[in-house]
Amino acid sequence: MSNSIELTQESYVDSIIERVVVRNPGETEFHQAVREVLESIKPVVELYPEFEENGILERLTEPERQIIFRVPWVDDQGNVHVNRGYRIEFNSALGPYKGGLRFHPTVYPGIMKFLAFEQTFKNALTGRPIGGAKGGSDFDPKGKSDSEVMRFCQSFMTELYRHIGAQTDIPAGDIGVGNREIGYLFGQYKRITNRFEAGTLTGKGVDWGGSLARTEATGYGLVYFVDEMLKDIGETFEGKKVIVSGSGNVAIYTVQKVIELGGKVIALSDSDGMVYDPEGIDLNSVIEIKEKRRGRIVEYLKTHPSAEYNDNSKNIWKIECDIAFPCATQNEIDMEEAKTLVNNGVLVVAEGANMPCTPEAIECFQKNNVLFAPAKAANAGGVATSALEMTQNSMWESWSFEEVDKKLREVMKNIYSSIKTTAEEYKKDGDLVFGANVTAFLKVARAMMDQGIV
Ligand code: GLU
């Protein structure tokens, strides 16, 4: 009897994974993200047959709305270009759609859907009333002038504005979308609608509705999360050798907080290559190169000639370290890099980027007792602080840096303790992947049950 029940339930999850693959051909990142969540929630789905009866998984894996649009723009030489814009409004069971915009040439529906799907669960973990979405474009901001980026953002918003709003869908930044882009997007939104609706976008400038500490939030939150994990094993960041991949917004503020807590960051990267500075990375130089000049990480050598550069960014994982923070992009750590990290004695791997570790890499870490923090929990500080920005906007208030930072720390602490407790409840102590997926799934699924078949 119990065997047959188990078989039926297993086949529900498996049939949904199969269905997602068939209905979304070629979208491998989306398949990967769905498989990762669904496989780990299997035992919970088995416990509650009402989820199957109400088609929860069919609905949870189908975006509520997918918007794809043309984005024409003119470059500085007068040439016309056409990019593709996206907004995937995945799930609104917990609140209005919320999630960033990514401008990167690799953007296509598979990446947009994986990010929007992940965002639904991540947002659930923050404890704030926000649903999940993601958007962006295959536009490549690299090498574009400010005025080209402005014209692109204006064209993008000329279509997007009709789909978003403080109670509907609230975009923010992601790869390729930072303060500059949010500014241009907000300006165009305001111009078209004739409304200064601060709550429509987050990541705004602090003088016009943005929240202090939003820029730092993803990186700081990531480090706060790992600090909680370390505390649990009687450790701290003090004296730890740390590697952070990437050198964008998440990486920079991860480095800053690690240094503040006494860790030593010895390597950073961008898509061209990596720098290794055994003396400890000089963050001010990195900020000067990456944030102020929008340059390449190789330029670090000009001011730090004793540092080493390698033009394969994946080689960053060959350096021996105690803590690894993949903060660049999806699937940057595969089995090979995972094995090297394990052989070099890594203690903690925490995902700053979205889905930077492949399923095989995660399995390798977990089998070898490496403490592993999944993105949807560990990098949730960014979107959680976006939700704090929305709260401030709706109250017409702005809180101090310290106040927002304190709330961020609280959110990260709560996420850690709730997912750890869930893992323990199901006798999967220490499995934060399971804990995060199950905690988030139950929250979203129960809200969907309450709201009927919609
Ligand atoms: N793009 C970020 C993320 O992956 C932030 C999204 C937001 O603030 O809405 O969570």
From TrEMBL:
The active site is at K134 (proton donor). NAD(+) binds at T218, N249. It comes from Petrotoga mobilis (strain DSM 10674 / SJ95). GO terms for molecular function: glutamate dehydrogenase (NADP+) activity; nucleotide binding. Keywords: NAD, Nucleotide-binding, Oxidoreductase. Residues 211-452 form the Glutamate/phenylalanine/leucine/valine/L-tryptophan dehydrogenase C-terminal domain. Transmembrane segments: none annotated. One of its GO terms (cellular component) is cytosol. The record marks D174 as: Important for catalysis. GO terms for biological process: glutamate biosynthetic process. This is Glutamate dehydrogenase. Homohexamer. Pfam families: ELFV_dehydrog (PF00208), ELFV_dehydrog_N (PF02812). Belongs to the Glu/Leu/Phe/Val dehydrogenases family. Substrate binds at K98, Q119, K122, G173, S386.
